Structures are given as structure tokens and as C-alpha cells.
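Below is the record:
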Amino acid sequence: MRLEAYERASLESPGITGRSLPDVCAAIDASVVASLDPLDDDTAQALRDAGADIVFTTEVEAHPTMQGMGRLQAEHLIALGHRRLGYAMPEHPLLRNIAGDRLLGVAEACARAGIDPPLALDTELDTATMARAARRWRRESVTAVCAYNDEVAIALLSAMRRAKLAAPGDLAVMGADDIPLAQVADPPLSTIAFDLEKVGRSLAEAVVASLSDRKPRLTPASLAPHVIHRAST
């Protein structure tokens, strides 16, 4: 029996592989499919039709959802006293769906706090575009920005320095994913992190349990994303 695990977003985005997840699984004769992201009923059925005996996804509460990561970003900034937030969207069209989910989480946190929705701006990983976005946020009274991910946040920090703006004094900046460069950014980047190894181990254990006709056991609290507070906020 063959066991394969995939992150759905990386396989179903046209232009990354050019093939759907069911097509890929059929091509490699996968018996089990495990996903970090919930699968809709149509996709799950298509995977079964492609030959997968077991299609397993974590419960929404048990893994770091995209919307949950955005919500944590905003909650951290709101707790620090920020009442007007911005959101730095990535330029790449293949990232827009994930970024949109994270933005929904930011907007949800803003609504819960009774503040205006985030001002979302399209950004590119170049200094001029980022500097224009930073100045726009400043004109619109934004005091803190949630970036789609750490790469976007680090690019924003670099552009801010060239524009004579400082973090967090002029704009607080919050990343997501906690890449290794986040802790050595200038200033070190606040971000959202989760234990990928623990997530993967939990998925593998759940798949093995399913293969053994046992009920999978997950530990949502241990898989939850968490804030890492550094100098950028």
C-alpha cells in the first residue's frame, strides 16, 4: 500500500503543477491521501474515484488554518493598542487565495474589536512598491500592518528603512510563517509560527490509525499557531 501526503494548495493551483490533486494521486497510485487543509466533498470523492482508499483531513480546529493565522496577527496588534490595521497582499496570483483567507482572519479580528476593516494593498517584493504602500498606509492613519507572510513583511521593513520610516514607531509590521530570516530581520520580525514537524507527525499518526481501523486522535492545542513577539511590533 502506498502512502502519500500533500499540501492541497500546492497541487491544485494551476501553474505550479498544471494538474489537479486527483490526477496526481491517480498517476502515482496513491492509496492514502492526507491533507493539512480540509477537503470539500467533491474533491474527496474525486480522490476516491482516482483510487485512494482513505482520504483523510484534519479537523479545522486541529491545524493552523489560514484564516486563523490572520486572526492571530490582528489580535496581537490590537492587543498592543493599534486601532487601524493594514494588510500587505502578495503580487503573485497563485498566492491570492491563501492570502485572501488570511485577510479574512484579520478582518474578523477587527470586527470583533469594533474597529475599521483592514486597508489591504497589493504589494510586490521591490522597494519602490513597498515604500508607496507604506506611505499610503501612513496617510490613511494605519499604524500596523499584517503581511501575507514573512517574505512580504521583510520586504516592507526594508522599504520602510529607505523611506526613513521605522518599525514599530511609524508602522508596526507583523509577518506569518516564522521563516529563519524573521529573527534576523531589521528589526527582528514578529510573526505567527507553528510546529510543522508536529503537524506532520500528527497527520501520519492519524493516517496509521485510519489504516488500522482505529479512530484518529488529534491534539488541537499542540498544533495551534502561536504568536512570536519581536521588535517589529
In short: Residues 165 and 171 are 8 Å apart (CA to CA). Residues 3-63+195-223 form one domain. The radius of gyration is 19 Å.
